[in-house]
Amino acid sequence: MVGNMTEELKAKICEYLATHNYLNLATLSPQGRPMAHTMAYVSKDEIVYVATNKNTRKVQNILNNPYVAFTVDEDDPDWFDMQALQVEGKASIVTDETELREVGEIIAAKFPVTADMPPDPDTILIKIEPELVYYLDYSVEFGYRTSINF
């Protein structure tokens, strides 16, 4: 039974990621100071991708320390309906041409506005692979949270 619950939770997490647009990414500066970055993202199953300028602080932080965390949530004023993901994982810069093309297609499908944007040689793609995910669903009960390791 535990196996089925695990697969069900993984499917819920992947569906939640697929149906939301923005995440709040936390990185650590080389001085150990936390930084938060609101970003549009796409997902492929549980893996999340964000595009950004290669010269940003978040990229420098990730190059220095690849461990990141992010949340995806609702802006719902009803505390008893709150749903969210809290994710801890590892970030890397995507260099594989096939993966870049595949994710580019996912980005264009999810955010059609990007199709009209000229290519920017300074834009890079960051891949975030989750290691631990907390799924919050206060509609189950107030404060309900369950977790899964990927």
UniProtKB/TrEMBL annotation:
InterPro entries: F420H2_bilvrd_red/Heme_oxyg, Pyridox_Oxase_N, Split_barrel_FMN-bd. Residues 10-136 form the Pyridoxamine 5'-phosphate oxidase N-terminal domain. Keywords: Oxidoreductase. It holds the Pfam family PNPOx_N. GO terms for molecular function: coenzyme F420 binding; oxidoreductase activity, acting on the CH-CH group of donors. This is Pyridoxamine 5'-phosphate oxidase N-terminal domain-containing protein.
